Amino acid sequence: MYQNLMKYGFSDRFKQESAEYPGLFPARVTEQHRDLYVLVSENGNLNASVSGKLIYNADGNLDFPAVGDWVMINRTDSSSGNAVIHRILRRKSVFTRKAAGTGMNVQVIAANIDTVFLCMSLNADFNPRRLERYLTVALDSLAKPIIVLTKSDLCEDLREKLDEIAAISASAGVVTCSSENGDGVHEIARLIELGDTAAFLGSSGVGKSTLINRLLGEERLTAKSIRENDGKGRHTTTHRQLFLLPNGGIVIDTPGMRELALNSGDVARAFEDIEELAARCKFKDCSHTGEPGCMVRTAIAGGSLSPQRFESYKKLRREADYTSMNSRQRDAEKLNRMFGSKKELQQFRKTVKAKGSRWNDKHH
To answer: What pLDDT score was predicted for residue 223?
Structure first.
């Protein structure tokens, strides 16, 4: 039973939970479009939409299916129309980001992933600060992060770049590869075990599509030719997709992300080196701005910690703290940034009140 689904990672964990919903059938989301999902069931692929009850009970994007989710549906074939998704089984991991815009909406990038490959090319796209951001989110997703440095055939200072990555990689593994000559591709394939799901994330043009095609053994994904001015290719995929690999692993391809705004993140694990230094500071509440006995400033002065990494740490820490606040806390934080202190805010309110009084006197 469930032989087809087991190829797509249907483990005992999901099998036991699915048994709680008699009359419904398990399936996995392989593609996500605006109002339509493509699923794989025990009897093959079919299209589906979410039930009205699921929509009614949803508090936000996190409560809707995403690529990689295991769901419960009302039919396992398309002979009588699209299936209806009634339940989402509990996720064992989820990679999210803050959705575009000024609100606090969340976008689910991929769910139920075992390994997340964070792809960055070794040419024009190389950006350690961006990688720190990806690592912060990946470490919070409960998936195992692995850094994939693509286009090694175009890199002339590989050792120098590897040293930079070693300083920020935290507990993540690092693999270099070239989809053009095949270097490192077999090593990545070995890291995706039978029944495991891996997601590939990174900016546009870093070579995710070409790498996944190498793993698939065929040209399933397309990318436009590399531009000579910046060494990037344009990924033409506009939605997330899940594929079954020849070796039994599963991969999720995602469109390139221009930015990765934090919805949540494990800053402490991504910056373990700075956290350890901060724990050794003379004062527990050290702000690392000039206090005596500050081990962070000592490390920066001694050259063992780069100022750029410390600035990145502070920025991501503020962002992570901000997203965890409730609406009242966020409003207070905005006011604090605008006015600097409670005293200055009180003075501003007095000024506004005084101006209002003068305006009333003048017009009455």
So the answer is: 57
What's the pLDDT at 266?
Answer: 84
Among 247, 54, 243, 254, which Cα is nearest to 141's?
254
Q: Residue 200 has what pLDDT? A: 92
Q: What are phi and psi of 173, to 5 degrees?
A: -75, 165
Token pair of 230 as six digits: 């910046």
Q: Are strands 115-121 and 197-202 parallel, antiparallel or unpaired?
A: parallel
Q: Which domains are seen in the chain, by residue range? A: 3-88 (2.40.50.140), 94-253 (3.40.50.300), 271-324 (1.10.40.50)
Which of 168, 102, 19, 279 has the alpha carbon at shortest distance from 149?
168
Contact 84, 37 (CB under 8 A): no
The DSSP string of 176-225 is E--TTT-TTHHHHHHTS-TT-EEEEEE-TTSSHHHHHHHHHTS--S-BPP
Q: How many CB atoms lie within 10 A of CB 106?
A: 17
Which DSSP symbol is given to 143?
A: S
| Residue 345 Cα distances to 135, 230, 259, 334, angstroms | 37, 47, 33, 11
Dist CA 68 CA 242 (whole Å): 7
CA atoms of 14 and 93, how far apart (whole Å): 13
Q: Residue 268 corresponds to which amino acid?
A: A
Q: Give Cα 344 distance to the centre of its chain.
A: 38
- pLDDT band for 343, please (50, 70, 90 cuts): low
Distance (Å, whole) CA 359 – CA 118 = 58
Q: Which helix (H) or strand (E) holds 319?
A: helix 307-323
